[in-house]
Specification:
Blueprint (H helix, E strand, L loop, with lengths): L1 E7 L6 H10 L4 E8 L4 H14 L7 E3 L10 H7 L2 H4 L20 H11 L3 E6 L3 H9 L7 E7 L10 H4 L2 H8 L5 E4 L1 H4 L6 H8 L4 H16 L12 H5 L6 E5 L3 E2 L10 E2 L7 E7 L1 H13 L3
Parallel strand pairs: 1-2, 1-4, 2-3, 4-5, 5-6, 6-10
Antiparallel strand pairs: 7-10, 8-9
């Protein structure tokens, strides 16, 4: 069984919660902790705690973490980041509010450090900007030797574009990629190929499981805000599958650096440098991933 810690930012997109429930239902994975990042990280933690409560997994610790990236953020940008219309567009999953879902006083960075120290060989499953992870590595550099690998959703080396999880905090991302820890990148161009289409979402709504019906309601709220998408794009599933099955994504080893200074290229992942520890996705077996996902989460369909 593979021990993992999940670092996530649910609220802007629906695939975080859809990926986390998959991880929680795989017998090959043991989720040791979940941390949330970017404003409002406390409300994001509520979404995770609600999901864990649905699944009777309140034994898993959850902590809210860093609100802003590791770069100078002016007052105007802070106001934009605090605009809930952009940051939490399907928070209905956490409604009605329940005090059982309130995050405690634990700090996500400290929880990452403690969890890694207590579980040598743990894998970090990162499906959000890497601010929490970079802060943990800076606060306690010795934890790097206890981390077997970091599997993350982020970046794109095939196209001349930025990707949110890397670009939002490019300084943190570059710190993590230069940490020496083996890195497995599920890139935007590959992970976006698996989408939950209308018929897939209907299976959630028709499920006899309350958690699946609740997720169907969250998808229905999310969908109009992201109407340009054909359905939930399952970017964040990559680290969860990679934790136990390395046959469904094709990877290529290559050096990667994050551009942190360019006026027009800041946040891009560039295949340059001399790192030998970074592996980048180049393809995905979509039919196999779809079958594994739906059978795991819905069961008995």
């Amino acid at each position: 069984m593979r021990n993992i810690l999940i670092d996530t930012d649910p609220g802007q997109d629906i695939d975080d919660l859809l990926a986390i429930i998959f991880a929680l239902r795989r017998p090959e994975i043991c989720v040791k902790a979940v941390t949330t990042v970017t404003y409002p990280s406390d409300r994001r933690a509520r979404l995770v705690k609600r999901l864990l409560r649905y699944l009777n997994r309140t034994d898993i610790p959850v902590a809210a973490g860093m609100q802003y990236p590791l770069r100078v953020v002016g007052e105007r940008e802070q106001a934009q980041l605090r605009d809930d219309r952009h940051s939490m567009n399907h928070a209905s999953f956490a409604e009605p509010a329940d005090e059982r879902d309130a995050p405690g006083d634990d700090d996500a960075v400290d929880l990452i450090i403690r969890t890694v120290q207590a579980n040598p060989g743990i894998m970090l499953a990162c499906i959000a900007p890497l601010t929490n992870i970079a802060c943990a590595l800076c606060r306690e550099p010795g934890i790097a030797k206890n981390i077997s690998s970091i599997a993350l959703m982020g970046g794109d080396v095939a196209q001349n574009r930025t990707e949110h999880n890397i670009a939002f905090d490019c300084i943190a991302a570059d710190l993590v990629l230069q940490s020496g820890i083996p890195i497995y990148m599920g890139t935007w161009d590959v992970t976006r190929k698996f989408v939950l289409l209308k018929d897939d979402c209907a299976l959630f709504a028709a499920s006899d499981q309350p958690v699946c019906r609740a997720l169907a309601e969250a998808i229905a709220v999310w969908n109009p805000v992201h109407s340009w998408k054909p359905g939930p794009v399952m970017y964040d599933l990559f680290p969860m599958i990679w934790a136990f099955n390395r046959t469904l994504y094709t990877m290529k080893e290559m050096p990667v650096r994050v551009e942190i200074t360019g006026e027009n290229s800041r946040g891009m992942t560039i295949p340059i440098g001399n790192q030998k520890n970074i592996f980048v996705s180049t393809d995905i077996d979509v039919p196999a991933v779809r079958e594994m996902y739906l059978s795991t989460v819905l069961g008995g369909r």
